[in-house]
Amino acid sequence: MYRIRSDERKRVVISRVINALARALLVAVLVALPSLTLPMVSMDSAQIALFVSFLAASFTFSEYFAKSPTIIEFRDAAPFNRMRYFMALLIVALLTAICFAKTDGGRLPDLVAAGAQVLGQSLDVPFSPVRLIIIAMPETTSTETLLTLRDGAAMAYGISLVGVAAFFVLVRFYDWPARNGAFNVWINLPLFDPTTGGDVVPRLRRDGYVNIIFGALLPFAMPAIVALTLNWFNMVSLLEGQSFVWSIAAWSFFPGSMMMRGIAMCRIAELIDAKRQRTYARAASDAA
Predict the structure, then answer these.
(1) Please, which residues have CB within 8 angstroms of residue 162's CB and are 6 or more apart in sequence?
(2) Which of 11, 89, 99, 177 has fewest C-beta within 10 Å?
(3) Helices (H), the chain
(4) Contact 69/63 with Cβ under 8 angstroms?
(5) Which of left, alpha, beta for 223 (phi over 0: left; psi -120 to 50: alpha)?
(6) Angle (CA) 122 123 126, round 5°
(7) What letter would DSSP give residue 74?
(8) Quick one: 232 exposed, middle or buried, by C-beta within 10 A (0-12, 13-18, 19+)?
(9) Separation in Å, CA 206 to CA 117, 233, 258, 273
(10) In contact, 167 and 260? CB cutoff 8 Å
(11) Are 102 and 148 spatial neighbours (Cβ–Cβ below 8 Å)?
């Protein structure tokens, strides 16, 4: 009996190590992708990117290998983090392809750039985030740079919207996360303390609504913040190479990720409230 339990424990540990290593490798690939793919990347920039990718991979491994997470939320509520990762990977990869098409070209990068141009023309309408981010640029910015910025922003913002819509469909029509078994608040929401601040259901809903509202407003607010801080840095340097990829990726990914987090927290509040109602109804039935 002891040997069976020992073998089972070893299998669990090995499975956890493989799972954590796979996730760490994927995160490292995401972080290092632009520096390893784009031409004309300096040696110093490539070394910094590799160092950052190593740090990100180490953090991811420690989070997924440990029994008790510290920061990463919804660790055991698949496919929430997987959807966010692939959304970020797609944004970074396509923005990198747009930059590559601008310099060296190629069949696939040119195809991506052509699709981004169509999206840019479609989303470049008054009061859209894409239009606002173009307006925020200095007047001295070249037309070619503005068009590249428009196309990249439209592509990234479109991917972010599709990711949020896909997660909403997963929640509403595929019963996330209930279909994966019991939801452990401590494991999946390590930064949320259910013992303080009153009832958890209103708190979860409040936090969810705040994330959704801020996520929806950030793509509109960030260009205004950039316009107010133009004197602090050289905007032209942020629209080239890796800087362009990561600036537009952050502008599009973080708001979408916040909206997904808000939807998830509202869903958790809904599940807790439904379970309470069933418990109260069962207690009332037993009392009768």
Answers:
(1) none
(2) 11
(3) 2-37, 43-65, 80-103, 107-123, 129-135, 143-173, 185-188, 200-228, 241-287
(4) yes
(5) alpha
(6) 115
(7) S
(8) exposed
(9) 38, 36, 13, 14
(10) yes
(11) yes
Structure tokens at 95: 């923005």
Residue 204's alpha-carbon distances to 23, 66, 192, 272, in angstroms, are: 28, 25, 9, 10
Model confidence at 41, in pLDDT bands (50, 70, 90)? confident
Element (H, E) at 191: none
CA separation for the pair 155, 122 (Å, rounded): 10
State the burial class of residue 7 (Cβ atoms within 10 Å of its Cβ: 0-12, 13-18, 19+). Answer: exposed
pLDDT of residue 1: 53
- Summarised one tens digit per residue, pLDDT across range 123-159 is 989 889 999 888 888 777 788 888 999 999 999 999 9
End-to-end CA distance of the chain: 46
Distance in angstroms (rounded) separating the CA atoms of residues 216 and 211? 8
Q: Which sign does the torsion angle of CA 269, 272, 274, 276 carry? A: negative
Give the number of other CB atoms < 10 A from CB of residue 239: 19
Question: What is the DSSP code (8-state) at residue 199?
Answer: -
